[in-house]
Amino acid sequence: MNTAGNILSALFDENFMKTARGYSKFFDSWTDITEKNGLAAAADHSRIKDLDRGILLIEIDHPGWKQILQTKQSKFLNDFRLRFPELDITGISLMLGSGKSHTEPEQETQPAQEPVPAREPPASSAVVTEPEIPAKGYEAIKDEEFREKLIRIGKKIAAGEKNKNL
Predict the structure, then answer these.
(1) What is the pTM of this model?
(2) Spatial contact of 58 and 92, defined as CB atoms under 8 Å apart
(3) Which residues have CB under 8 Å from 18's CB, separation 6+?
(4) 46: which strand partners?
(5) Which tens digit of pLDDT belongs to each residue from 98-140?
(6) In the CATH hierarchy, which fold is given to the domain comprising 14-96?
């Protein structure tokens, strides 16, 4: 019978750890390579996203940085090939990402209040209220903050569908 320690030792043997350190160096090398090529600031606006079938995927947060990085693309490719010949990198693909820099901490922001579209008041003097979202099912969610977010999303969806029917 194998113990958990034996299984972990088999999984994380020296070759595995050596390979993991190699990949870590690879992903961390982007800052050095951009600096070496005179574009140190580019590392704050881009990152290595993946290596897929020999193509190095670089994610950029703005189209302007994509254009700038394209001017040095062949130099980047040569540097990666020299530093990591075992990865057999054949090309670089620059892709526009989410717009967030990889160095920015993930921050949760409250959604901005959406402006209410101007429309004629209803003929009656009835007060227009926010659509009701049934609480059924939400009480099972223990995380209060997550539950509140789901309820807000539900209200926005219900309001959007209500506006479509007007």
Answers:
(1) 0.52
(2) yes
(3) none
(4) 60
(5) 655 444 444 444 444 444 444 554 454 444 454 454 555 667 6
(6) GMP Synthetase; Chain A, domain 3 (3.30.300)
Sign of CA dihedral 69, 72, 74, 80: negative
DSSP for 39-97, please give it: -GGGGGSEEEEEEETTEEEEEESSHHHHHHHHTTHHHHHHHHHHH-GGG---EEEEEE-
Q: Which two tokens stand for residue 108?
A: 């949760």
* pLDDT per position as a tens digit, 23-36: 788 889 999 999 99
Distance from first CA to last CA of the chain, Å, rounded?
Answer: 68
**Residue 154 structure tokens:** 């539900």
pLDDT in tens, 61-72: 999 999 999 999
- The encoded tokens of residue 40 equal 């140190």
Check: CB of residue 59 under 8 Å from CB of residue 100: no
The three-class DSSP label of residue 133 is coil
Answer yes or no: are the C-beta atoms of 4 and 11 closer than 8 Å: no
Cα–Cα distance measured from residue 165 to residue 159, given in angstroms and rounded to the nearest whole number: 10
Q: Where are the domains of the chain?
A: 14-96, 129-166
> Does 79 score more than 60 pLDDT?
yes
